[in-house]
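**Sequence, structure tokens**
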Amino acid sequence: MNPAGVTNYPPKKIFCFLGDNFLYYHVKFKSMKNLLLITAILLLGCSGNDSSTYNDNDSGGDDNSNDAPLVLSILSTDIENSNYIYSDVYTYDGNKLESVTQSDNQSSNISTYYFVYTNDKVVRIDGYTSYNASEPTKTEEVNYSYDSQGRLVLMVHTDSYETETGTFTYNANGSVTFNQSYKDNNSPNSNENTISLQFDNKDNLISYSDGEDTRVLEYDNYKSPFKNVVGLNFHILLSGELTTSEIFSLNNNCTSASFTNSQGETFSDSFSYDYNQEGYPRQIIRKDYEGYESTISIQYSN
């Protein structure tokens, strides 16, 4: 239900920090897969372990040692219906992600994403979907390009409906300008958007603005579940191929997220975490601006 008098408010299932335009194809993917949606994550603003021993106070980066914990599975409940459970299952080649299989307990549809690397960077994702136990068919492809500094500069996503192209420009003030265009595959229709993204010194996304709406995120110093996976970029996490849950960073964990619309109205979500002994979240609880809650449970390789 929309707050009284509010006409521009954040989505319920997807607290759209990068905006409806940026996450358009993500939302569409999840609708096609029985509404497996994202921008995404789970339990605990206060850590179950009060010790700062596990705080991640470096400048970010992966622990690529052979015994570094890797996510094996994530289960998350729907924000409005706890009987609706989304599942992500992961396979690896060392610390490189091989595949993510996404499903839910209300349908027989299964989507699997396969990750292709070059020079320890993800350069392509191939998406396959099985509808009602049918043979999987390729439904989408995402290609990524990087500059000489290893920064993401180009993304091209293609499915049966449209082609999305995104370019990323890194500005002197530390912000990133994301120029995004959509081209309908079956008509001459197209759409363009410009989004400004701001990251902190650990590469956590802390704000987004499209000139009308603004999203602001805050983080703790603990480790993201995906911190040890090689070669990911922020677009992969926020677009939906990596997880159907609400996890917003590859480095640390979001504790609060606010959405301010063009009318100046602000809505906030909060996140509380239970951490394991290594300082990785094993459960997350998200509470949205209307008091609904969802739970995320994470299992690791060790």
User: Anything to note?
Assistant: The chain is about 5% helix and 45% strand.
